[in-house]
Amino acid sequence: MIPPAFEYHRPTDLASAIGILTEHGDEARVIAGGHSLIPMMKLRMAEIGHLVDLQSVAELRGITVTADRVTIGAMTTQAELITHDGLAEAAPILREAALQIADPQVRYMGTVGGNVANGDPGNDMPGLMQCLDAQFTLVGPDGSRDVAARDFYHSAYATERADDEILTAISFARPKGGYAYEKQKRKIGDYATAAAAVLITKEGGKVATASVAMTNLSDTPIRSDAAAEALVGTACDDAAVKAAIAAMLGDIDPQQDNRGPIEFKRHVAGIILARAIARAFSRA
Ligand SMILES: Cc1cc2nc3c(=O)[nH]c(=O)nc-3n(C[C@H](O)[C@H](O)[C@H](O)COP(=O)(O)OP(=O)(O)OC[C@H]3O[C@@H](n4cnc5c(N)ncnc54)[C@H](O)[C@@H]3O)c2cc1C
Predict the structure, then answer these.
(1) In 10 A of CB 206, how many CB atoms?
(2) What residue ranges do the domains of the chain occupy?
(3) Is 35 in the pocket of ligand 1 (CB under 6 A)?
(4) Can you give the pLDDT of all 284 residues of the chain as single tens digits?
């Protein structure tokens, strides 16, 4: 289907982009890689009078890695996440997750900012960012504010971001220890039936700290503190993994859809989490 007519804007700096959003209110929407928004427009699920293309806003691009922090510009593509050597060394879980998003064509255009701002529970980056305890920087007419990824998602497609705010960057402390992003999908290029992001640090052969977040198993990403707590102080033996899975299952709320019935999704979520825990623990 062809989308309804819209006016196209291509600002070259952030202030102008925010100015256009402010002028046109909820008639205007930014477009990044367009790989979520354009399908929605074609399906006429999104009717937008003014499309504000962020491709020429240079200040939204780039990856900065310091001794203790990683900052990623919102317009960084998923392909750039995969090929950036500094990022692969500082936070390899991003590369592991990005490689499991869609296919190379989508990853060349799709941006990390679009992926987290969209609010689609099927997107892989929101859960990963909750696992990393990332901060999202939002800039609007009244200035800039940081929102924790863990507080950003209200429900499907509803987020903490106001209509006139642009997500400019994502930042997080360099993760320590072992990591894993594990995803079950029906076929290459598909969204997750279930996915798990796990970070683990070890001390004396036991888990010192853990972080767990799940994707596409509720209408928002789900960080499961209870699952993480079940692992701390253990060597991730069977009993600890079972306890973490039981805790995670208490936090998610999957719905039946074309990826399967609820019980199937809960079963897959347990298997995926067990695999992610085993890999993260072995790498820690
Ligand atoms: C065939 C196919 C398979 C896919 N499979 C997966 C998958 O397995 N996993 C996955 O995670 N994703 C998947 N995607 C989605 C893909 O990763 C998208 O590119 C991504 O979700 C959105 O990024 P984008 O840059 O294309 O955003 P756009 O489509 O341009 O925008 C998406 C939404 O975010 C808003 N937005 C974008 N950037 C900003 C910003 N900087 N500030 C504020 N709002 C912003 C837009 O207004 C829009 O509402 C798939 C897409 C396709 C077409």
Answers:
(1) 14
(2) 7-53, 60-173, 178-283
(3) yes
(4) 788 899 999 999 999 999 999 999 999 999 999 999 999 999 988 889 999 999 999 999 999 999 999 999 999 999 999 999 999 999 999 999 999 999 999 999 999 999 999 999 999 999 999 999 999 999 999 999 999 999 999 999 999 999 999 999 999 999 999 999 999 999 988 999 999 999 999 999 999 999 999 999 999 999 999 999 999 999 999 999 999 999 999 999 999 999 999 999 999 999 999 999 999 999 99
Ligand 1 center–CA 201 separation, angstroms? 31
Number of alpha carbons in the 13 Å side-chain half-sphere of residue 94: 31
Query: Class of the 60-173 domain?
Result: alpha beta
Pocket test residue of 37, 59, 166 for ligand 1, highest count of atoms within 8 A of CB: 37
Mutate to test the pocket of ligand 1, among 118, 163, 167 (most ligand atoms within 8 A of CB): 118
CATH topology classification for 178-283: Enolase-like; domain 1 (3.30.390)
Q: Does domain 7-53 have CATH number 1.20.1250.20?
A: no
What pTM was estimated for this model as a whole? 0.97
Distance 109 CA to ligand 1 centre (A): 9
Q: What is the dihedral of CA 195, 71, 154, 108, to 10 degrees?
A: -60
Strand order in the sheet with 178-185: 178-185, 192-203, 206-215, 222-223
Q: Count the alpha carbons within 13 Å of 225 in the hemisphere toward its beta carbon.
A: 2
Nearest residue (CA) to ligand 1, atom 21: 115
Ligand 1 atom 33: residue of nearest CA? 118
